[in-house]
Amino acid sequence: MDAQGQQSYYPAFPQQSIVGSLSEVARLLSKGTDVSEEFIFMSALTCFGAMVSGVLKVNIGYTSDTRLYTLLLGESYAAKKSTAMTKTIEFFKRIDGPEKWGTLSGVGSAEGLARGLENQSRTLLFYDELQSFIEKTKVQASVLLAMVASLFEGNNYQNVTKNKAIDLTGVRLSLLACCTTKTYEQVWTPDAIAIGLPNRLFLVYADAKPKVAWPEAVNKDECARLTEKIRKQIRLAERVFDITPEAKIEWERWYKNLPKNEHVKRLDTIGVRLMPILALTMDKEIVDEEVVKHVMAVMNYELDLRTLTDPIDADTLMAKVEERIRRVLKNRGPLSKREIRQATHADRSGTWAFKMALQNLIESKDISVKKVGRKEVYEYSATEPELDQPVTSGQEQVGAPEKEETEIIEVDAA
């Protein structure tokens, strides 16, 4: 439920995986305010990862990193995304990393970002609104999009033209930005989708919390204690974490059971980057089963959120509305017409488009309508292969519950 008591149609961040010293940061900075803990926790993971990039690693068959491209996603200003980002960045600015690091509040071009990285090779680039970054990438002949996408996995970037040249070596870029769900749906360009920027982002969604007219000030003593605790952890960051055999088995099982679709791209990369951060901030000596299970829970959440919010690549308004309805019903289960309308923000496209999209999907048998008691609900019914769901660790396999008897009916979508 959100602050207004309405049903949220987005997956909930796994609260049990807000752990370690960064969970203490989340609680400290959100206490007595209307800022969400999950926003601060993920902002803290991003700042911490930026600070220890290239120093803190995990023992795996390729060069590991800790840098993240994180996007805070909320319905509107009420979700306090920018407040969470700003408070977290200010907290970490008082802490020195193993090597010098810095922040950069937006850039206007690839050349501007290059100058920032030349001045400070370990940089956290942050934006109050993702749209301002996407708009800059639309400038003719701009290579800002290609540069940021390339630096997610790499530390070097070269682009030479007749009049100017960019030549970066050994740089470490992290990204932290905010966006409303409405803007996220509309902001993407074909170039940004084609280059794969959406699947480089770690999305985190939070509903607006109840409003707080007079937010509490941060407890200075607790802030000082926590700052020193994180300083001590960072002093231990020059290390390579091994992984226990049990943790490897858990991760391999999760990895092999990922679905085969666009939404899973780079989930494993992001997960491996989270492992050493969580291990260090949980005061672990090794990446164990507990750490991996937390990472798996966060990655499962990320997959659900990506599936629901992934940019819709469709040519017409009707096709976009139809795809939104499919996604909501596939991910959230049977819903009433009113609930679908709320979940897909149908009023933005108009009632006629929503009505016709429902009718089209019923006629094509992508969705069906069933009667449960006196209530009519819509459900996803497109033909797909039935796959056995793997039993995750710690879960007992139980018999499937008896299905509720339903009556499939044909109704007018009006």
What does this structure look like?
This protein is 43% helix and 14% strand. It has helices at residues 20-30, 37-52, 81-93, 110-119, 130-137, 144-153, 181-186, 190-195, 220-235, 245-256, 267-281, 289-309, 317-332, 337-343, 351-363; strands spanning 56-58, 69-74, 102-105, 122-127, 157-160, 165-168, 172-180, 202-205, 239-241, 367-372, 375-380, 407-409. The strands form four sheets. Strands 3-4-7-2-8 form a five-stranded parallel beta sheet, with helices on both faces. A three-stranded antiparallel beta sheet has the order 11-10-12. Helix 4 links the parallel strand 3 and strand 4 (122-127). Helix 1 (20-30) crosses helix 2 and helix 1 packs antiparallel against helix 9 (220-235). The longest helix has 21 residues, at 289-309. It is globular.
Features:
alpha/beta, single chain, three-stranded antiparallel sheet, disordered C terminus, 414 residues
What gyration radius follows from the Cα positions, in whole Å?
Answer: 23 Å
Structural class: alpha/beta
Q: How do the strands of the widest beta sheet line up side by side?
A: 3-4-7-2-8
Identify low-pLDDT runs.
385-414
Main sheet summary: 5 strands, parallel
One letter per element, helices H and strands E, the order comes to HHEEHEHEHHEEEHHEHEHHHHHHEEE
Instruction: Kindly report the average pLDDT value.
Output: 87
Overall shape? globular
Q: What is the share of helical residues?
A: 40-55%
Number of E-type strands: 12
- Total helical segments: 15
